[in-house]
């Protein structure tokens, strides 16, 4: 059983978005932790298998892969190439799909439902489409049996059950489980005994035109923190006077006709 988990290193706070990615300003995407935990639970239920994590970006984000391996992943893969800078979700999915194909054979590909920084939720579905494998989003329970996955999720108050022929892709609901803590032994083993394989575009047989800004049909023009201007005003007087003053103010603001 080969389970692949796609993870991302995200900027901790928006004000650090212009900073160099490092352990000081970045962390493993919180929503990827449930996907990792699901992979470990599935491996443990079968008492066999391999969990591989994939990420992409500069070598400075390797700490996120080491963290995933400290949690229990067996192997890490980093796609690192200057040409991938500026990739949108489609270009990112193209890169991940190529890396996953290179890791074949595989049985499951897991994703977090979204990322803490961009919050699009595009990459899981797009990668599954490029791999031409079935996809279930917001999975909460997965049980494996005879080349199939039995999946449960609750959407809009309705409990849904699916049977999916493997290989398949799944985005894992952020309430699906409680990710395990990392022990000192796990950290030591991650750095001493486990390796991160680094691939570039040539390793994936991808052209520069298919990734980065050149291969991205969408561009993020800006990211701004939304601030709400609130002001509290007390209306004094007798109850009937307060009511009339409130009505007058609502009419003045165009909220009442």
CATH fold-level assignment: Rossmann fold
What count of helical segments does DSSP give? 7
Which structural class fits the helix and strand makeup? alpha/beta
The shape, in one word, is globular
Give the DSSP E fraction (strand runs of 2 or more residues).
15-25%
- Determine the N-to-C terminus distance: 66 Å
- The biggest beta sheet, please? 7 strands, parallel
User: What's the average pLDDT?
Assistant: 90
Say which CATH homologous superfamily is assigned.
HUPs
Rg, rounded, reads: 23 Å
SSE succession = EEEHEHEHEHEEEEEHEHH
Question: What is the CATH first-level class name?
Answer: Alpha Beta
Structure description:
By secondary structure, the protein is an alpha/beta fold. It has one domain: 3-Layer(aba) Sandwich (Rossmann fold). The protein is 29% helix and 25% strand. It is built from 7 helices and 12 strands. The chain has a 7-stranded parallel beta sheet with strand order 7-11-6-1-4-5-12, with helices on both faces. A 3-stranded antiparallel beta sheet has the order 8-9-10. The protein has a two-stranded antiparallel sheet with strand order 2-3. Helix 2 links the parallel strand 4 and strand 5. Helix 2 crosses helix 5. The N and C termini lie far apart (66 Å). 35% of the residues are buried.
